[in-house]
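Weekly modeling sync, notes
Attendees: S.R. (lead), two postdocs, one rotation student

Agenda item 3: backlog of single-chain predictions. S.R. asked that every request posted to the team notebook include the full sequence so nobody has to chase files. The rotation student volunteered to paste the first one in as an example of the format we agreed on. Action items at the bottom.

Example entry:
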Amino acid sequence: MSDPGPLGPEGDDPFRGIPLFGDLARMLQQQGPVNWDAARQLAASIATEGASEPNVDPLDRIQLEQLARVAELQVANATSLTTSPSGRGVSIVPVTRTVWMQKTLDAHRQLFEALAGSLSGTQQMPTLSDDPEDLDDPMAKMLGGIMQAFSPVMLGMTIGSLLGHLARRSFGQYDLPIPRPPSDEIAFLLGNIDDFGNEWSLPKDDLRLWVCVHEVTRHAVLSVPHVRSTLDSLLHRYVAGFEPDPNALETRLGELDVSDPNALTKLPELLGDPEVLLGAIQSPAQRELLPQLEAIVAVVVGYVDYVMDSVGEGLVGSYGMVTEALRRRRVTADPSDRFVERLFGLELTQAHYEHGAAFVHGVVERSGADALERLWKSERELPTPAEIDAPGLWLARIDLPESG
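Predicted structure, as returned to the notebook:
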């Protein structure tokens, strides 16, 4: 009996007669649901734009070590939080975009695998339709075979595209408030920070210190065990809930002329377009989950902003100017950044930040700043969506009296 091949009996193999392509398809199918090599290669290409990256200046490493001590002390004095899971102190480590991308891929691999599992459930179409004529159409078989055999590559390139765009924009680990495994290290993209400072004519040392304090504060909040576990659970459930429209990919693949020898060279660009691969962005299950996710994210970003305002004025000489620039930056993202945020259910607009700030200030006005410490006591103390809108409800539920 002959080898049935990757897609079924030999007579159903659309790549039969194209030995190199058929061998490639069989090889790709043996690499699991995600081709991580494709993810890394595309991420590095987008992040660096094909240019080599200079090594981090040792003097910058020394300065960031000093700023880390300052930031850690300020955050510890202003909050009840532990900044270092091990207790040995937090380290701020400057890295290149390529290193940041690899660290982020390692940290969020389970999240990306949940996303891949959600998307791969729609990549099982051997033909473009149920029309009997299409079943015998070589073009339909070819496109169906591409969707099945190249699913790991497509998913890898989707993840790589997301990582590459994040690496070009991020300052540290927490531009998006996604928890990472417990660690004392915070990776810094110093080149991105300095480029932004030059663009906005901001004092370099003030900007670096501001970002250090901000990252250490988010690190402390997202390292709280019940905050990390709750956010991780919500994010995994969200990315696992996609119901993408496969017709978006079919339509674009159908535009390729397979009789053109150069057609396949266009596949990397096509398969690296997340919008094409995902089609419809949000399912009913995700819409139902979103208020819970938005509530916890709102309280995290609102609390971090409150801490920054509490310590920043006395610490950063040009705090007002730096804060205005950075808070404007976070709500003026380009479409590729917004796509990444929507993918994880973290589309943080100005309204979302204001929502979190209103809750935090409402708590402080009613019961004082010390009441905020209860947010991080246990999972029970995390506010519900309704309580984010009405801080008094949260205070009543956790039995905190309002001051006169």
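Discussion: group reviewed the output briefly. The first helix runs from residue 19 to 29.
Action items: rotation student to repeat for the remaining queue; S.R. to check formatting next week.
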